[in-house]
Design a protein that fits this description.
This protein is mainly β and 151 residues long. It is built from two helices and nine strands.
């Protein structure tokens, strides 16, 4: 059975078997589960890596990955990349910029990595890139707004 972990208001599941063994999957956001699912893990250097496998449901009518799917993945990735700076606070996307660099096809593994460029008291700035097989498909940058949780 997969183990669940509650962190920063998110519930994640550590996958135990299959292609995603050792990766975390967020269980807290119904839209991300529907759109992805998306997975996260730390690499050997401690950097957060996000990934998903391109499925038929992610494609547009031309047979390439839908831009909205890549943008949704980027929105997921910014929070995973910035998770250490978001400990104990709520957060929302204030701004998300994307540049589509190339198309992705069904079956490809899409991975995103990035960095926090600045983290302040109320805002976190993130940039990253999504690629498949070393080929960049999306460049993204974002501002995350920290918010107080009600209750």
């Amino acid at each position: 059975m997969d183990g669940s972990v509650a962190e920063q208001g998110w519930t994640t599941r550590i996958m135990q078997t299959g292609e995603w063994a050792g990766w975390e999957r967020s269980e807290s956001d119904p839209f991300e589960l529907h759109a992805g699912p998306f997975y996260t893990r730390q690499d050997d250097t401690g950097r957060w890596v996000c990934a998903f496998r391109a499925e038929r449901k992610h494609m547009n009518g031309g047979g390439f990955m839908h831009g909205g799917c890549l943008a949704t993945f980027a929105d997921y990735a910014i929070f995973m990349i910035a998770r250490d700076q978001l400990q104990g606070v709520g957060s929302v996307t204030a701004s998300l910029n994307t540049e589509f660099l190339d198309g992705a096809r069904e079956g490809e593994l899409i991975e995103a990595t990035g960095e926090v460029t600045r983290a302040g008291g109320s805002m976190v700035f993130v940039r990253g890139i999504a690629s498949t097989g070393g080929r960049p498909v999306l460049n993204f940058s974002a501002i995350i707004k920290k918010v107080r949780r009600k209750g």
